[in-house]
Amino acid sequence: MKHLLTVSDLDQRELLQILDDATMYEKGQMIWKPSNSMFVSNLFFEASTRTRCSFEMAQHKLGLQIIPFEVMTSSVQKGETLYDTIETLAAIGVQSVVIRHPEDEYYKKLQHEVSIPIINAGDGCGQHPTQCLLDLMTIRQEFGSFNGLNVAIIGDLRHSRVAKSNAEMLTKLGANVYLSGPKEWQDHSNICGHYVEMDEAIEIADVVMLLRIQLERHNEAPHSLNNTYHEKYGLTIEREKRMKKGSIIMHPAPVNRGVEIADELVECNRSRIFKQMKNGVFVRMAVLARSLQSVERGMTHDNYHQKWHMAK
Amino acid sequence: MKHLLTVSDLDQRELLQILDDATMYEKGQMIWKPSNSMFVSNLFFEASTRTRCSFEMAQHKLGLQIIPFEVMTSSVQKGETLYDTIETLAAIGVQSVVIRHPEDEYYKKLQHEVSIPIINAGDGCGQHPTQCLLDLMTIRQEFGSFNGLNVAIIGDLRHSRVAKSNAEMLTKLGANVYLSGPKEWQDHSNICGHYVEMDEAIEIADVVMLLRIQLERHNEAPHSLNNTYHEKYGLTIEREKRMKKGSIIMHPAPVNRGVEIADELVECNRSRIFKQMKNGVFVRMAVLARSLQSVERGMTHDNYHQKWHMAK
Amino acid sequence: MKHLLTVSDLDQRELLQILDDATMYEKGQMIWKPSNSMFVSNLFFEASTRTRCSFEMAQHKLGLQIIPFEVMTSSVQKGETLYDTIETLAAIGVQSVVIRHPEDEYYKKLQHEVSIPIINAGDGCGQHPTQCLLDLMTIRQEFGSFNGLNVAIIGDLRHSRVAKSNAEMLTKLGANVYLSGPKEWQDHSNICGHYVEMDEAIEIADVVMLLRIQLERHNEAPHSLNNTYHEKYGLTIEREKRMKKGSIIMHPAPVNRGVEIADELVECNRSRIFKQMKNGVFVRMAVLARSLQSVERGMTHDNYHQKWHMAK
In what residue span(s) does the Aspartate/ornithine carbamoyltransferase Asp/Orn-binding domain sit (chains A, B, C) (predicted)? Predict the structure, then answer.
């Protein structure tokens, strides 16, 4: 069985293989469908449009069957544990679950107990592995490799589940990671990278990766943040002009327009924000397919023959 | 790209063409399926059973794939704008969206900005074009044409999104529109038609079209309404007896039984209320197909060849 | 048309036929798909994971098309009655509805009025026929027949919709039913069986059937219950040791771990709790198929030819 819980679980070969698969799905050069009907379920304990719809789209494109699950109308409301919920779905015939959950490392104990693979779609302030993979795909698409690339990650470093994984993987893959953001949101113990001033970050970066202010995870009043944040740490129209030639802008979205980035820049030439969303579908197809192939192999036990079919 | 935002956008030829298509779908004389998988999403920001399930049924019957979207569990909860939500869905691969929204003309700015067609499933107190089309289909089914027909629209004229479009289109198509209802709900600036007394309306009408009291849009206590409304403006058992031979009763539903119409009349011989719901599926098939055909043509650019296939 | 509202509606031949069908579905010895697309809808007015997902899985496996219905975003919020909701779905093309509702015997009047079959997925403190059927399937799987079997039903007898139907059907099928549980939750008028002390029940039973404490239906504070309940009426580790050789443990779930049953016993060798969930899918396939076959026959009127196809 093959969970995907953190990107750190992936060795470099596996990670690049997923990016290769995603690229082949994007170009229509690879098709995988399960040999028999396969069933998945999406358990979202937090609000989501992008990630949830993107997984659903990937599942449709792989020809998977989706058993709908809504937290608000489920037995979670009667106090059922996450383990019992997953094993119930497994008993009913669900073969893999995608989970987003507000608790950091909700999967810690679960991963050794459940009988079907979990794909982590975000855990609290922890990780969001498919977001990291789609970010890496978007960067590789643009620059061909990661080696020597300057990537500036800017904003709410402490609460972001994107920042940590991206900083770690980019560093492993040879990029130089620069960090910037308000002092009270810096995170010196968990994120690898060099802290620099905002204006320096903008000028040296090949990739300006803005983070979302997770207003829903803060206790401060959003207004007091918005007023000053854009001037100090946002990508203003003026700052964009000082970006390097050929450099790009990324943001995991949803964007707080006029806060992390000027409204006018969200869809500017440098922006890859909607491209990231497009790539998300292909990355999730690659991840789901690998996970379900491991289930298929498990089901037939001695049948390890290759299930991948190349499109002509 | 082809939005459907208001019925006024349709010229008479187009409108009648949609009714013809719907009739052919109803009779099983027309089949259209997209040549490749096509994806749609239904964004309902207001409660709905009829319209929502009817669109889902139409989508199933056309073989479309539906990416589920629930406002309550989406990033709308994090403050994402409608524009960003639609463009996110578009980036992920959704090719048309059906939207119901509490804001009048929510589409006003959007329609020039979004990259996929919007089908309006109701905007505030504004329009509800597929409801208008299904009403027209139901009337034409009964009487063959609209010319010279007397249609009485009765009730909460000001808050109704059905009244305005129906009055406008029926007048254009040659019917005589009569209006009746409480003074405080009359709307002399926006609705075309002759105001008459309730009892006169009942006696001259070929079609008695009752409007729903949109209790959820009123501030008054529903009880005070219900007590007197039925006697004054409801279709009572006594009033039904004075209706013309061959005349029919319509209501967009959900019906407040015993308020707009006597409980016993909801499914009486004259009533076309459930027939309206049946027709809704076919009208929506016609509208969705036209919208997605425009997307298909856009995708292939120089391929404007006819995608409609007649069933043998 | 063929509702399934209570198990008492089924004569013994019909009941055993459903269990036979379910067993054939389980073994892959029977396949039924509707000859044309058939549409169903699941109306859950109470929280559920197991029952709801299990019906969805059964529907997928039968190749049915599901029109999603969410109470919270439906016109039920505008006061639409259950009758009008069902008839609306029927008008739109839905051919059978699965309903869970908090009101006892919500179907009482409905069943003579609606135009499509209802499958009851639980009514208040009333019945839950497919749960009863899956329990019977699980017992028959284990022991081959019901004759002379000792079945102890333990716990919240009064609020449980499982206890009543199971006690009635098991008695009819020749089993001896023993009941145990807190005095204030006993129900001498509605449930057939012999009341015995907890420790006696455990020792004589071939089947120890634990009931869920429906905390959501009680007014007492759950903590005061939990503290003493497990010692007095729960299946403790110590009690399990005194169970008969070959006897099994059942529970309709969701389990309150450490209350009705010790955490460690939920997945022990004797436990059939997850097996019950697996069987639920097959029982629901059998029930849905029978219900829809009656619709199919109704549709063609003079065509009563057998629609069941045996798999080779």
Answer: 148-289
Task: Check whether A272 has a pLDDT greater than 80.
Answer: yes
- The 8-class DSSP code of residue B244 comes to P
Contact by Cβ (8 Å): A42, A55: yes
| Chain A nearest-CA residue for B72 | A47
**DSSP run (H or E) holding B56:** helix B50-61
ipTM exceeding 0.85? yes
Across the A:C interface, residue pairs with CB atoms under 8 Å apart total 80
In the structure, how many helices (H) and strands (E) does chain A have? 10, 11
Instruction: In whole angstroms, give the CA distance from residue A77 to residue A72.
Output: 7
Query: A129-273: same fold as A7-128+276-310?
Result: yes
Residue C180 CA to residue B83 CA, distance in Å, equals: 60
Chain A residue numbers with beta carbons less than 8 Å from the beta carbon of B69 are 49, 53
Instruction: Find chain B residues with C-beta within 8 A of A159's C-beta.
Output: none
Rounded Cα distance, A308 and A289, in Å: 9
Spatial distance between the Cα atoms of C216 and C219, rounded to a whole number of angstroms: 8
* Beta-strand runs (E) in chain C: 30-31, 39-44, 65-66, 96-101, 118-123, 150-154, 176-180, 194-195, 207-210, 248-250, 309-310
Fold for the domain defined by B7-128+277-310? Rossmann fold (3.40.50)
| Chain C residue with the nearest C-alpha to that of B281 | C92
**CA max distance for chain A:** 62
Q: Do B49 and C81 touch (CB under 8 A)?
A: no
Q: How many CB atoms lie within 10 A of CB A262?
A: 18
Q: Determine, for residues B73 and A68 on separate chains, whether the beta-carbon distance falls below 8 Å.
A: no
**8 Å CB contact of B79 and A254:** yes
When scoring B59, B60, B92, B116 by the number of chain A Cβ atoms within 10 A, the one with the most, hence best to mutate, is B92
Q: What is the pLDDT of residues B156-189, one digit of tens each?
A: 998 888 898 899 999 999 999 999 999 988 888 8
Taking the C-alpha atoms of residue B46 and residue B82, their distance in angstroms, rounded to an integer, is: 14
Q: How far is CA A166 from CA B162, C96, C271, in A?
A: 51, 49, 45
Q: How far apart are CA B257 and CA C10, in angstroms?
A: 35
In the CATH scheme, what is the homologous superfamily, with its name and number, of domain C7-128+276-310? Answer: Aspartate/ornithine carbamoyltransferase (3.40.50.1370)
Distances (CA, A) of A46 to A74, A99, A250, C101, C205: 14, 10, 23, 27, 44
For residue range B242-259, list pLDDT tens digits in order.
999 999 999 999 999 999
What's the CATH number for B129-275?
3.40.50.1370
Name the nearest CA neighbour of A258 among A274, A232, A235, A277: A235
Work out the angle at residue C269's Cα, subtended by the Cα atoms of residues C271 and C264, and round it to the nearest 5 degrees.
Answer: 75
Q: Which of B47, B72, B281 sits opposite C92 (nearest CB)?
A: B281
Structure tokens at A174: 């040879």
List residues forming the annotated binding site of B for carbamoyl phosphate. Answer: 50-51, 100, 128, 131, 253-254
Cα separation, C3 vs C1, whole angstroms: 7
For residue B116, how far is the Cα from the chain centroid? 21
Residue C16 CB neighbours (<10 A): 14
Domain ranges of chain A: 7-128+276-310, 129-273
Residue B69 Cα, gap to closest chain C Cα (Å): 11
Dig out the tokens for C40 from the structure: 């169903």
Summarize pLDDT for B26-50 with one digit per residue, the tens.
999 999 999 899 999 999 999 888 9
Q: How deeply is B256 buried, as exposed, middle or buried, from its count of CB atoms within 10 A (0-12, 13-18, 19+)?
A: buried
Evaluate whether C165 touches C139 at the Cβ level (below 8 Å).
Answer: no
- pLDDT, one tens digit per residue, over C14-33 is 999 999 999 999 999 999 99
Q: With respect to CATH, is domain C129-273 assigned 3.40.50.1370?
A: yes
